[in-house]
Amino acid sequence: MKIRTKLFIFIPLLVLLLNLIAFFIFQSGKKVQESYDVMMQRIFLYKQLSFETQENLRFLSNYLIHQDEKDYRSLLQHHKELERLQKALVHLHLQGNDSLTLENYKNMIGVFIDLEKSIVQKLVDKRSSDYTEQFSEIEKISTFIREDSQTLVDLELSVYQPVYKQLLIDIGQMNQLGGILFILTTFLSIIFAIWLSRTIVIPIHRLVHAAKQISAGKLDAHIPTVEGNDEIALLGKTFQKMIENLRISISKNMEILEKEKLVRELELKALQSQINPHFLFNTLNVISKLAYIEGAEKTSELTVSTSNLLRYNLRKLDEPVTLRDEVEHAQEYFAIQKARFRERIAFQLDIDEACLEQVIPCLTLQPLLENAFVHGIEGMECGALIQLSIRSKPNHVQITIADNGAGMEEDVRKAILQLSSSSFSKKGRSTGLGVTNVLRRLQLFYGTEHVVDIQSAKGAGTTIILTLPKRKGGEKGVQAVNC
What we know:
Blueprint: H1 3-66, H2 69-90, H3 98-124, H4 132-215, H5 231-273, H6 277-293, H7 296-315, E1 321-322, H8 323-341, E2 345-351, E3 359-360, H9 365-377, E4 384-392, E5 396-403, H10 410-417, H11 435-446, E6 452-456, E7 462-469
Parallel strand pairs: 2-4
Antiparallel strand pairs: 1-3, 4-5, 5-7, 6-7
Helix pairs in contact: 1-2, 1-3, 1-4, 2-3, 3-4, 4-5, 6-7, 7-8
């Protein structure tokens, strides 16, 4: 059963029971009040009739003695009030012998009013000798009315007494029923509160506790199982499924990160081992020829350059370096190539000293220079030129490597920019540290895709422009694995 259905059943039921209690109490009180009002109205009517007859007799006596107009007006006013009370008395009824007493009382009121009218009329007609006997009679009737008024009051009280006792019995029963309903509603309220706590509050509290543990990083936290088919149970099952999916997703992401780390380590090892034998053969061949033609001094210099080059390649692949190290390494590499190509090539440097502390992945410049040699100027008989420029910009360092060699086709240029591993397929002609590998390492190192631009056309040379975010040596975030 859904929570909404349960609430729509239990809450209206409790409200209905409480309303029943209030209704019974109200009805019992209303019944007592109505009975009391009826009795008091009848008693009050008897008292008023007794009072008005006395008042009428008093003003009639004053008028007989003083013949004053003021007493006459007062007499007429009380006479009208007595007639009004007589009309109300007509509607009253009693049972059994008591009804005779009431009828006699009504007749006496009527006789009193008629005698009063007759006496007043005789006074108006100046017949003072005819009303003496009537006045004596009206005095007696007034006394009887007063006595019968008290008798009727006593009768009303005696008649009301069993009714009052029955009302007390009914009120006691109502109070007993109200107490039972009160206990029942209290018991149902406690049961409802316990049910609400067990099915809603406690499961939600457990889910909140589990959510806090998971938000703190405890993915192995116990997820409580919520029984039932209501919304809370559905929330618990959904929450449990979400956590399971989260654990699976994190596990898969950890596997992917581990695989990427292994791939990067393998790539670094592969890069470290891919020193082209052809390049080493050419270098050693040049050294042997120079040793044959020239003296030991130049042979020694070339040997030192080769040694430095090999040492740099083999020992610094596992950590980032500065541009100063890369430029020095590029000069060593160019010295070897200069010995090979002699006057056929020229190497121009335009270096901003302020940029030489920029951190960069190792073996970045040499592969790009080697690409310029192999694919750009190697076939030129004379006038070959390679330029290396390093300039400081407001937010980055710009490295430009340009040659005046053969250039490249537009599709080749686009393929390199898209990091296509098939851009160059001439095996045995370079160290294996191709342009695409260099660009990929730069992207990983600086965390951005926009690090390179290539300007080239067939027969018009090639210019590679590297845009590197400024990062000095020793800054946080420089990790050796990125190299």
